[in-house]
């Protein structure tokens, strides 16, 4: 018998497959991924119910793709979800906050403007997005001092 | 805040003599309030954004909270009942065993809690806040009442 060989076709550099109508839109897949993540943490979430599974739809639904619009929706959702939360794993390690960080550098001016409007716990997101902590050791835990330090940082870099 | 909102989040408060004692603020949290502070947010976060006692491990585990309050002179005790000469704090944990909330006992035996970024309340029993959001009361700590000089 002749020896069978497998030919590997090399993909061109700009190779991609256009999405066909019957395929699942990317945002739905993303939502499912988060649901799977939440299910994996189910013992905690069943009891504590910090993030709402339904709420993920708001952040990922078509029509909320524009960063500012998505940020506003996610920020509103995050505030509602964490009103009574005090600990970082309940405040920041939840989908709405992580999705804000996931907006990338475009979220920085949006967060700073939100922080300018009212005090809030955006420091974790800003630290994650920028790798900086302009507040320094002297302001550790002091929400107003950290807020002013970040606003100053934003002004110096032209974000505000 | 409307009482109905609070009672919806904490059904154990319904029918009890709780009262709201402050406006909502993001400036301090329940851990700071349990440590009798209202100017800093206490949090064992790995970014070191928030205050946590020097030398205490920064993670979300119960041991980190017990060690933090040990620096203030607190040690684990058996009961949440008032004891003359002692002040007490309570730690709540969720199903993962990680702390979710802290409360502090007042002189009259009632408890005070800062509810996240929301209001402070006085409540009669630590169990009033147990439930879906804060899980269950896990540990009660006590220390001798500091002497007034």
Features:
heterodimer, A: 160 residues, mainly alpha, 9 helices, 0% strand, globular, B: 149 residues, alpha+beta, seven-stranded antiparallel beta sheet, 3 helices, 14% helix, 25% strand
Give an overview of the whole structure:
Chain A has 160 residues and is mainly alpha-helical. Chain A has nine helices and no strands. Chain A is globular and about 30 Å long. The N and C termini of chain A lie far apart (73 Å). Chain B has 149 residues and is an alpha+beta fold. In chain B, 14% of the residues lie in helices and 25% in strands. In chain B, a hairpin with a 5-residue loop joins β3 and β4. The mean pLDDT of chain B is 95. At the A-B interface, α2, α5, α8 and α9 of A face α2 and β4 of B.
What order do the helices and strands come in, and which of them pair?
The complex is a heterodimer of chains A (160) and B (149).
Chain A: H1 26-40, H2 42-48, H3 55-60, H4 67-81, H5 88-91, H6 95-102, H7 107-117, H8 123-130, H9 143-156
Helix pairs in contact in A: 4-6, 6-8, 7-8, 7-9
Chain B: H1 3-9, E1 19-20, H2 30-34, H3 62-70, E2 75-77, E3 86-93, E4 99-105, E5 111-114, E6 120-123, E7 136-144
Antiparallel strand pairs in B: 1-6, 2-7, 3-4, 3-7, 4-5, 5-6
